[in-house]
Amino acid sequence: MTPLLPLQAEALDISFKLIPAIIVFLMMASFLVIGYIFKVADADGMWVAGRGIGNIENGMAIGANWMSAASYLGLAGLVALSGFYGLAFIVGWTTGYFVLLIFLAAQMRRFGKYTAPDFVADRFNSPTARALAAFTTLLIAYVYSVGQARGMGLVGQYVFGLDIIPMIVVMMTLTVGYLTLSGMLGATKNMAVQYVILILAFLAGIYVVGFTQGYSTILPQIEYGALINDLSTEFSAPFINSSYYIWIATAFSLIFGTCGLPHVLVRFYTVKSERTARWSTVWGLFFILLLYWGAPAMAAFGVDLFAQVNNLSPDAVYSGEQAMSGAEGDVIVVLAAQFADLPRWFVGLVAAGGMAAAIATTAGLFITASSAVAHDIYSELINPDATQRQQVLIGRATIVAIGALVTVTAFNPPALIGELVAYAFSLAGTVLFPMFFLGLWWENTNRQGALAGMTVGLLLWITSVINSVLPAYVGFLADIAGGSGQAIIPIYAQYVPPIGAALVGTPLVFLVTIAVSLVTPEPPLETKQMVRQCHSPEPMGQQQSAEDFVSSSGGETPADD
Fold first, then answer.
1. Among residues 170, 141, 140, 176, which one has the least CA distance to residue 153?
2. pTM summary value
3. 152, 363, 444, 546: which could form a disulfide with 171 (CB 3.0–4.6 Å)?
4. Taking the domains of the chain in order of start, what are their residue ranges?
5. Helix axes 116-124, 433-441, angle to 10 degrees
6. For the packed helices 164-212 and 388-410, what is the interaxial angle rounded to 10 degrees?
7. d(Cα 549, Cα 71) in Å, to the nearest integer?
């Protein structure tokens, strides 16, 4: 192999590469074309794709929407850099879909609204609850998207040979451009295409790297285990890089954060029926597992190749002057192919898969954020007489605005790609998941309980971020903490870390919501009947919601019998 200098963010053989550039150009052009073909002009198409998506296509969209830069690049990076701790992300990001499948997918579809804040507002009869849910949705979209923008910039560096900042600007501009044009319908069609690109690129990378380097033959997802003894204990030994508590807290937050992410739950509003919602979840989980099963193998290949190329001992990968940096870990998938001396066009294909993953997830996040502003805040709270054209225009303006904010933040992000995304999961699991679960499964959950629970959850997560993350960016907080890398209250950071705040926050929000609901008046009968309708065996129309069904049936549902 040709020796390479240790990577310091620029280690990605940064130079213009014609064939990879052509691959990325054609990929981006296809996204714009698909977005134009399926462009929308009404709210149904903008937010829920006309509720006409089938289960396999929606499963592919769930997979693409889910497998962000954090999955394609960051997941292998977390395993490469933190070994056993990285498995908490794989456990969390897959187990959450079983909870979704069993408890939320079909019920959410039967409730039948546009957005997650829509559900919260209508279920708890509260504009304030809508505002809190919309604010939480915007926070999630912002934090989550920063990691995607960073991933796009890192991949763009490899392909086009530019510095990371202009690459972030260019890639985010293209992404925002196609989203403002297409809306949810075009984004969903694109997500199916993006899934095919990213999974083929990832599987091609893991199989070719494994085979050409002698690591594996038929099943690299299993055969990589033979490498474990050759790698540092930092890679494989349990709880060397983290405590047992933080491992459990991270996995817990990711499991229930999955069930609270608005851009995931909105996928259930885009399908034809509750049966389609269930099956699209099953397909989505299958499509996700194709990548997640292989991420540890790609990490192991990359770590071993890093040591070989840089002439390092296994332990020197994690300590010393030539140790693997965070930037290197974030692109270990691309680096493994590069270190294996594979053709540039092939490494470019692997890189393009990472870009497709980042764009697909950014699309879902930005559409969700735009619906929170245009539908939940503007048309529901500010201007109830807003036309569909006005809503779509406000939604597109929101996409541009949040795109600009995410772009600037991605220039100097506060954590690794995977960690950034985990912050958003922790927020979703703490604030929104309890509202979705109790709202669908306990009909006596009321407005007062929901408002109290959401407020407690938001305060807990925000104080955790202020305590542990912001001292690195805000001077006076660093002074209070005693240094930019320190927490203001160390014991709070230990037990309520931003990445795992849901372990404390979610049970607390459940308890507060239930307690307040028990000591305040029950919700109206019509609200209870809507909850019952979400569990009714009687089928509903494609465009029908639980509220419509209860109204049209005179307030009676089969579940009342």
1. 170
2. 0.84
3. 152
4. 8-414
5. 50
6. 80
7. 39
